[in-house]
Amino acid sequence: MPAPLAVTSGDPSGIGPELAARIARDGAPAPMVWIGDPRHLPEGTRWQAVDDPAQPVPGGVLAVLPLTFAAPARPGRPDPANAAGTIAAIERAVALVQAGECSAVVTAPINKKALKDGAGFAFPGHTEFLAHLAGGAEVVMMLACPELRVVPVTIHIPLAEVPRALTPDLLSRSIEITHAALQRDFGLAEPRLALAGLNPHAGEGGAMGREELDFIAPLIRRYQHAGMQITGPLPADTMFHPAARARYDAALCMYHDQALIPIKTIDFAGGVNVTLGLPFVRTSPDHGTAYDIAGRGLADPASMRAAMVMAWDMALART
């Protein structure tokens, strides 16, 4: 059986600590250890400090690897003083997985501005920081739920910059990383990939843009000739209904909203963010810090629970 999941605190002023406490109380879907400052857990949380992630704790009790942060947490009010602690929790989780003491990293949401203001955090987000901790691994972001897996090839950039950023090399690497991860982490011997077009109607033969003709379709043909099950470029407005989704295992989309709108429509509460291409498993809930409801006991644990289930399944696939 894999080692426990390493679950990070995330921004302690957000909903991360209360989600971990709630999941432990209700029964975690996999063995887990939480990395953070116990002062940031909701009042009344049953927790136990452990020295070893595998140390057993009673049912309903949250196992905690204590990490002292600089300041208390005020729900809904991010404090740059806690930036270093938030980063340290991520680094500790990765180190534990790299040492074989934990099986996967499950990260709670962070506030990138607070990390930058308080600790000079120089990364756009979790994904890039984890790639750095992995020695500069090439990674892609996948959003997944039981009904759909999507990979945005370009991510957090203005829409006006997408055509320039969407290069044949970037698309090729995204295809190959996704294909390999579906085999290694999801147990799919011959993954079926579908590629969306960049332009409306997938360019309509060049009438609405030439990217499909110039490099997307030729790239797809190259992979088809190599034996990969890959289709496209497909019009994005017709590839996410149930019958279309049944024809592929993952869809690669050309920009952020093209990927995230369908998955958040299909499963807003249960989507999972997965980093593909890392030498270790990492998942995260597909939501933010939710400052507006932090500390009020209203946070829905569905996405965090789904992230833990997926991380555990992926860890099992790697054993």
From TrEMBL:
Task of the protein: Catalyzes the NAD(P)-dependent oxidation of 4-(phosphooxy)-L-threonine (HTP) into 2-amino-3-oxo-4-(phosphooxy)butyric acid which spontaneously decarboxylates to form 3-amino-2-oxopropyl phosphate (AHAP).
Catalytic activity: 4-(phosphooxy)-L-threonine + NAD(+) = 3-amino-2-oxopropyl phosphate + CO2 + NADH
UniProt record similarity statement: Belongs to the PdxA family.
GO cellular component: cytoplasm
Protein name in the entry: 4-hydroxythreonine-4-phosphate dehydrogenase
Miscellaneous comment in the UniProt entry for this protein: The active site is located at the dimer interface.
Cofactor needs: Zn(2+); Mg(2+); Co(2+)
Main location: cytoplasm
Keywords: Cobalt, Cytoplasm, Magnesium, Metal-binding, NAD, NADP, Oxidoreductase, Pyridoxine biosynthesis, Zinc
Binding-site residues, substrate: 126-127, 264, 273, 282
Record's cofactor remark: Binds 1 divalent metal cation per subunit. Can use ions such as Zn(2+), Mg(2+) or Co(2+).
